[in-house]
Design brief:
423 residues, Immunoglobulin-like, mainly beta, 39% strand
Amino acid sequence: KSTSNGDAGSWTRTRIIDFPIEGFDGNTISDVDGDEIADTIGTTDGTASILIDNAGMMHVWAGATNLLDVVEGDNLWSYFGGVTGMWYWNESFGTDSIQYLDIMLDWDGDGDRFAGIGFDIPVYGIGLTSQPTPALDPTTGNIYVMFTQPVENTDFEGDPSSTTAQSFRDIFGIYTTDGGATWSDEVNLTYVAKDFYENVFPSTTTTTVGDIVHALWWQDQDPGNAFEGDGADPIASHDIVYKGWDFSRFDPYNPTADFTFNVSTDGTGSVTFTNLSVDADTYNWFFDDGETSASNSPVHIYDASDEYEVCLTATNVYGFNASCKTISINVGIMDVVLNNALQVYPSPSNGNVNISINSNAFGVATIEVHNMLGELMNEPVNYNTEGNKELNVDLTNLANGNYMVKVISDNGSVAVRQITIVK
């Protein structure tokens, strides 16, 4: 470290972790105690990062691995890709006093943090928790560190014990508020390994900007690389992904549950649900008719015409979140006729909505507008459908968003259309 802008003679060299074999180059066995038997040596995996804090103190992080060399003169050695944890040092520790951060998370909570990791560990030349990259919040002095880690039970085979099973990695994060004396629990920042996305080689800015930790990383859908030797991946393109996380993302967070739905207009009571939830592992649907589903995006059939409050609960390892929406179901011949005759347009709309029913069979209909929670948002409007006249409904007083236009004929038939208001 230099305290004088790198001037000659201003540098101080500090050894923070001592490799016991001086000048090791892979041509001698890793014999530490001189018994002519190769020893396994704990060391770094070469993915080191350095940061200077507000007080001018240097912090260093490095991935952890073990090294073993059993053959003399072959210019080769073995490293252990299944080693967990990260090395951490700052200037207050002194020489040869690096600390070990045991940060490998038991993702599925079964008490064994390795059981769900795929048997075939991709060859990146690193440990399981590695590629650390830090960012300093210049306002508070807090330090945020991102790193990559495989997530249990994310292999294509669906069986981590398979000899070809490779787990996908997410970007995780930890932080310190006391200069490295203590560290937060690790938190999954990307949460997409479950969807078979590999996230490695993260990088960030030296300091946070606008209370945001900015990150770039390599993402594709095949763990490993094209330089692995036997069984190397084919050469293919990958994405460089950017994401900015606010500080709260480094603490445990609940998923966000959300969904849309499409009600069939054929009178069968069939509804197709599309799951829009993020940061979730499992889903539970409650259809308000006594039926449930754990599918991602189910199709459900209702037996009776009515309004139903459908709720989706999304769950991740940190907690859960629920979203509920009211849907109107029409089952019957006249409901089908009304559905086929009804037009509501335009959508998106600025709030001026046109409604027409191409039929004289429904007398005076009532027009209601509900929000997605089922709350009535307007005074009901009467609409004489005889003569196929068009009705304009002024909804310009409503906020931007999605709404349900409900048409109730005087014979009890019901039809619903979803519209979007954007001003």
